[in-house]
Amino acid sequence: MAKKQILTIPDPLLRKVSEPVIAFNAELKNLMDDMLETMYAAPGIGLAAVQVGILKRIIVIDLAKEGEKKTPLFIVNPKITSKSKELISYEEGCLSIPNQFAEVKRSSSCKLNFLDYDGKEKELSADGLLATCIQHEIDHLNGILFIDHLSKLKKDLILKKTKKQKKEIDRVIV
Ligand code: NI
């Protein structure tokens, strides 16, 4: 397994729509293993393949807290089959938008079909944090970021702060 670099905004790849996975082979499993390692190291609770520069419809999630037994979830080619009208809000962050957080409202529960690590068809009903995390990651597969769910004012503020952050990093390197 190898840790991969996580792309951050404004990398244009983050705005692209990812392609469905067609073949389940060793290369795909390597990629999924690398994604999981990258997510654990970050650390984060969800990661989409596009965030490591691969435009494939693959998500890894693990909501286990530090010190708890790991519970990795591999979700390939997800399709949401139903979403609750009831909404829930969480303060969300994203490994591709470092150090920025904002409250986002999403469906409080959802059902989906997907393929697992071995390419087997699975069905899942999710609610609470898992439902939010799945919707956030599926957004990534469609080139959508959590800041797109905010008002223009809040979104612009986060974009401005991220730009400033990058400049400060550059300054230290120079
Ligand atoms: Ni994200």
In short:
With 174 residues, the protein is an alpha+beta fold. The chain has three helices and seven strands. β6 and β7 (121-127) form a beta hairpin.
**Structural class by helix and strand composition:** alpha+beta
| Strand and helix order | HEEEEEEEHH
* Total DSSP helices: 3
Question: Shape from CA axes?
Answer: globular
Largest sheet: 5 strands, antiparallel
Bound compounds, each kind once, are: nickel (II) ion
Between the first and last Cα atoms, what is the distance in angstroms?
Answer: 32 Å
**Approximately how much beta-strand content do the residues carry?**
25-35%
Strand order of the largest sheet: 1-2-3-6-7
State the total count of DSSP E strands.
7
Helix percentage: 25-40%
Rounded mean pLDDT is 95
Low-confidence stretches: none
Overall radius of gyration = 16 Å
Which properties best describe this structure?
single chain, alpha+beta, five-stranded antiparallel beta sheet, 174 residues, 3 helices, 30% helix, binds nickel (II) ion
What would you say this structure looks like, in words?
This protein has helices at 26-41, 128-141, 152-173, and strands at residues 46-48, 58-61, 73-83, 87-94, 97-107, 109-115, 121-127. By secondary structure, it is an alpha+beta fold. The strands form two sheets. A five-stranded antiparallel sheet has the order 1-2-3-6-7. It has a two-stranded antiparallel ribbon with strand order 4-5. Strand 4 and strand 5 form a beta hairpin.
